[in-house]
Design goal:
Layout: H1 5-9, H2 24-49, H3 54-84, H4 93-118, H5 127-160, H6 166-177, H7 179-193
Helix pairs in contact: 2-3, 2-7, 3-4, 3-5, 4-5, 5-6, 6-7
């Protein structure tokens, strides 16, 4: 069995693994209900004050929370499933970690840009920046799809304890892709794998 050095020596620091033990409705609430409430409050504030710039401050904060929880969940799921993989299944954890980091860094840069616009640090954006963002955005999307593939394959391989093909885990892949719906089906299965006795 593959063991993580961090979880082996410092289990108390692995706080994000608790996301894997959340019930499906709790995770759904954190990722969709809470942001909807923030969004609604921000919109009401805009209507009352007449200042749409408040959204440039609220949106990055909402996105930071959302990205932190979603990518934290994906990261913990992938790294902890990797530890439970049977010896016959070979997956590249380093590539997975890199592919998690790239979209997070990209989103953080976008959020910094939005905050800069909100506080008028950079008033005149360069059109070349937007042209350069297109390939970075596409690559970031590729990385997200790789993470979905990694988690879907690892989940099915851990459940079946053998190597699997895309036809075996394609359902899990699409459930991860359409996360708001898939969480209701996948999270109970993940709970079984990562309960305190598992």
């Amino acid at each position: 069995m593959k063991l993580s050095v961090i979880s082996q020596y410092l289990p108390e620091l692995n706080v994000m693994i608790k996301l894997l033990r959340f019930k499906h409705w709790q995770l759904f609430g954190l990722l969709f209900v809470v942001p909807m409430i923030f969004q609604s409050l921000a919109m009401l504030s805009i209507l009352e004050t007449g200042k749409p710039t408040i959204m440039l401050v609220v949106f990055p904060i909402m996105m930071l929370l959302y990205v932190g929880i979603l990518f934290g969940w994906l990261y913990e799921l992938g790294t902890n499933l990797y530890e439970k993989l049977p010896e016959t299944v070979n997956m590249n954890l380093g590539k997975f970690k890199t592919c998690i980091f790239i979209p997070v860094a990209y989103i953080l840069l976008i959020l910094i840009f939005l905050l800069g616009m909100a506080f008028q640090i950079s008033v005149d954006p360069n059109p070349l920046v937007f042209i350069l963002l297109i390939p970075i955005h596409v690559f970031s999307m590729f990385c997200i799809f790789y993470c979905l593939y990694f988690n879907a394959k690892a989940l099915k391989a851990v459940e079946w304890q053998k190597n699997v093909n895309f036809s075996d885990y394609s359902g899990e892949f699409f459930l991860l892709w359409f996360f708001p719906f898939g969480i209701w089906i996948l999270q109970p299965r993940i709970n079984k794998l990562f309960d305190d006795n598992g």
